[in-house]
Design goal:
This protein starts with 18 loop residues before the first helix and ends with a helix. The chain is built from 11 helices and no strands. By secondary structure, the chain is mainly alpha-helical. The protein is flat.
């Protein structure tokens, strides 16, 4: 007696995603590309417009000469470039130690009332208009000194940079794995040495990026410098004297009733844009080259 033959099974046929799912996938991909292009397009339009009007005037004379007196054509922005660099460096030097220290405090010991107060203060300060910060710096530095100065400009830029550095440092330090701290503490290292030699080096590239973002924002601020550094048409390397800067130069020349000055304002805007882009690219390149410890 033979056993009955097993029933034949239908062959397996691979079915791909349904037409509805494929259409939804394609539509979602196209929507993401469109959203990305919308985000990029304002920056691309600004770069195109500023560089189109500013590049023709970016000659060697423009970079290495001082502004000409009213009524004369030509001149340059050498003093404004140097003044901007000095005040941004001063602001960075003032804000980075305070901002990184406060960020470390918030990340490591910021769960109490003092941490909440510092965090709230940084958040509120980041939303204060830059012109208000300029007025505050005017009252804190310019009034006691009795005159405008590059020092006052640097202090105003430091206040603008501070909240970005504080909050960014807190966030990136919190991302350092807890096992790093526990391993160092298990070896007998005190808490301060764990922060100094383990936590901070691990977060250093991200902290450097945060400083860069704050620096780029400060370099383009105009309102606080109008109340503090004021500007100058001459060489002024002394921080105790009024100092030229690219944002104030652009502001003054863009609203002047002279076509030559308007062209120079576009060229100065291009210089500022190129400088910020170069610093950003340089720091990002450096961060990638720095080995994580």
């Amino acid at each position: 007696m033979t056993s009955p033959a097993p029933p034949k099974l239908a062959p397996l046929v691979a079915h791909g995603p349904s037409l509805q799912r494929r259409l939804f996938d394609r539509g979602s991909t196209v929507a993401c590309y469109v959203a990305a292009l919308i985000v990029i397009s304002p920056l691309a339009l600004i770069l195109y417009h500023v560089l189109r009007l500013g590049l023709p005037g970016m000659t060697a004379e423009f970079f290495f000469n001082l502004p000409k007196p009213v009524g004369e054509t030509g001149g340059g922005v050498a003093n404004a470039i140097v003044g901007t660099a000095l005040m941004v460096l001063l602001g960075t030097g003032l804000s980075v130690p305070i901002g990184v220290g406060a960020g470390l405090f918030l990340a490591e010991h910021g769960n109490g009332r003092l941490g909440t107060l510092v965090r709230t203060t940084a958040d509120v300060l980041s939303g204060v208009p830059s012109i208000v910060i300029g007025v505050a710096a005017y009252g804190l530095v310019v009034v006691p000194m009795g005159h405008f100065s590059g020092l006052a400009g640097g202090v105003a830029l430091a206040i603008i940079m501070l909240p970005t550095i504080v909050r960014s440092t807190e966030e990136v330090v919190r991302l350092v794995p807890r096992s790093y701290r526990e391993a160092a503490l298990a070896l007998g290292a005190p808490r301060w040495r764990v922060i100094q030699q383990v936590v901070l080096p691990a977060a250093a590239p991200a902290v450097l990026t945060a400083v860069l973002l704050a620096l780029a924002r400060a370099a383009g601020e105009t309102a606080p410098l109008l109340f503090t550094a004021l500007g100058s048409r001459f060489w002024s390397l002394s921080l105790t004297q009024p100092m030229a800067s690219l944002p104030v130069y652009i502001f003054d020349y863009a609203r002047a009733p002279y076509d030559d000055w308007n062209r120079q304002a576009w060229s100065a805007a291009s210089v500022l844009l190129v400088l910020v882009t170069l610093v950003s690219a340089l720091v990002r390149f450096t961060v990638r080259r720095v080995p994580r410890r």
